[in-house]
TrEMBL record:
GO terms for molecular function: acetylpyruvate hydrolase activity; isomerase activity; metal ion binding. GO terms for biological process: carboxylic acid metabolic process. Residues 1-53 form the Rv2993c-like N-terminal domain. This is DUF2437 domain-containing protein. The keyword Oxidoreductase does not apply. PANTHER family: ACYLPYRUVASE (PTHR11820), ACYLPYRUVASE FAHD1, MITOCHONDRIAL (PTHR11820:SF7). Keywords: Metal-binding. Pfam families: FAA_hydrolase (PF01557), Rv2993c-like_N (PF10370). The keyword Mitochondrion does not apply. Residues 59-254 form the Fumarylacetoacetase-like C-terminal domain.
Length: 257
């Protein structure tokens, strides 16, 4: 099952994707906080604007250097423990929203990732019980100001600026994420093509580790890391990210005048 957050008028709605009909079956409320009760309303996909499938109430937790080939291309070793950073919820945008390059950076990169969405308040979750706190999965682009990441010594500016966390296009429930393709394209050119089976620290381990640091809240998002092939994006380009079984979406790249 895949769920979209969408808008046709003024107020965002949630809907279950009917793949055969290319329609969304509207839900009565936010599925993270309620159930999957439908209203009976059906809306054609081509008549809606898709939004980020979740707006984290609290935080986006990122994981760095979690693919060995990406760590190597950046000249880094794979850390023994997950390398954790935070992105504010103000960094989140949805499909087709512009990625606004920050004025303080001249080298911004794309990073396609599988993202995990948390279902309930939790702390100290054992890895073997991680599935109990997962609501679903979505696709992320961990947009990064690479030059600033190198010079600042910590990653807040490099990864936390507004529009640096596109999420979409759907929330996939009950998905086996052990071996899914993770891809990024820039203007149609394939840049990243990895698989979640290459993750150094798998999803259950990440949830156990992250929840030992932070209390996780419903709607919090954990980014699981990016495969090799990251590279620059520039004004006028369109960046697409995709995870097999969830879907693909893209964003135009702009710079504020």
């Amino acid at each position: 099952m895949r769920i979209a957050r969408f808008i046709t008028g003024e107020n965002p709605q949630y809907g279950i994707l009917d793949e055969d009909a290319d329609e969304l079956v509207a839900l009565r409320g936010d599925p993270i906080y309620g159930d999957l009760e439908t209203t009976g309303q059906r809306v054609a996909l081509d008549e809606v604007r898709l939004l980020s499938p979740v707006i984290p109430r609290s935080k986006v937790v990122g994981i760095g250097r979690n693919y060995a080939d990406h760590a190597a291309e950046m000249g880094n070793e794979v850390p023994d423990e997950p390398l954790v950073f935070l992105k504010p919820n103000t960094s989140v945008i949805g499909p087709d929203d512009p990625i606004v390059l920050p004025a303080f950076s001249g080298e911004v990169h794309h990073e396609a990732e599988l993202a995990v969405v948390i279902s309930r308040l939790c702390k100290f979750v054992p890895a073997e019980k991680a599935s109990d706190v997962i609501f679903g999965y979505t696709v992320a682009n961990d947009v990064t100001a690479r030059d600033v990441q190198r010079t600042d010594g910590q990653w807040t500016r490099a990864k936390g600026f507004d529009t640096s966390c596109p999420l979409g296009p759907y929330l996939a429930l009950d998905l086996d994420v052990s071996d899914l393709a993770v891809r990024a394209r820039v203007d149609g050119e394939l840049r990243q093509d990895g698989r979640t089976s290459q993750l150094v620290h798998k999803v259950p381990e990440l949830i156990a580790y992250v929840s030992s640091i932070f209390t996780l809240l419903p709607g919090d998002v954990i980014l699981t890391g990016t495969p090799a092939g990251v590279g620059p994006i520039d004004v006028g380009q369109r960046v697409e990210v995709e995870v097999e079984g969830i879907g693909a979406f893209s964003n135009p790249v702009v710079r504020r005048d």
